[in-house]
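Hello,

I think I submitted the adenosine-5-diphosphoribose job twice by accident. Can you confirm which output corresponds to this input? Input:
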Amino acid sequence: MGKAISKLKKFVSTSDQIVAFTGAGFSAESGISTFRGAGGLWSKYDPSIYADVNRFRENPSYYWSFFRDERYPVIKRAKPNEGHFALVELEKRGKLYRVITQNIDGLHQVAGSSDVIELHGNTRKIFCLSCNRIYSMDEAYRLLQEDLPPRCSCGGVLKPGTVLFGEPLPQVALDMAMLAARNCDMFLVLGSSLVVYPAASMPRIAKKSGAVLVIVNMDPTPLDDMADLVINESASKVLSRLI
Ligand code: APR
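Support: Only one job matched these inputs. Its output is below.
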């Protein structure tokens, strides 16, 4: 890993508009399961049933049982790991321009990152599909103890603010992420399999716009061939070594 870290250090020393692009692998060391790769959630839960917007419209209980049993308990307990704090340090040193995350756990903000683009939404706000009343994640979990799916006081079904398969990404977040990918001088992928679009188009856009592309991921990704550097190691360990 030594040679790769020194190459990464060289890239970082000549960049001051770095975009960090994080996926589920970045929160793995905070105890939140990844979706793909060893032991991934999608090997236990079929995403076309448990995380698809059309299925949600037919029967929201699938998603909400997944949320109750798998997501809420780990996200509630999760704390930022040394990778999250390393990104905050990079920001303090004036190196980090933006964080683009596919994660919905909010750990970047908890760690202190000030400019986070959440491509797939977040679990902080849960709203009623009928009257749009907003609930917190904890309130939704309490309502889940009484009713599956959880319902608003008006009787409407609740929906999380996270993007399900088949749903469009929040347009503002997508536009801001595209802009960041075009304007950065280094695009640092951290813990993503890079198989879900349009998020996975960002590294290509950055590379085409002249940025250095670095991919830090335990497993190979489909974009490794276009990267200037690939490190198949723990993202938080690599960032800690970098800092
Ligand atoms: N350090 C670096 N990489 C890691 C680590 C780690 N500690 N642990 C796991 N990984 C890698 C795995 O090798 C895997 O390739 O993280 C990657 C996680 O990939 P996914 O689970 O596919 O997560 P992600 O790329 O964020 O998925 C994108 O898919 O299901 C949807 O909406 C969901 O946002 C998610 C999107």
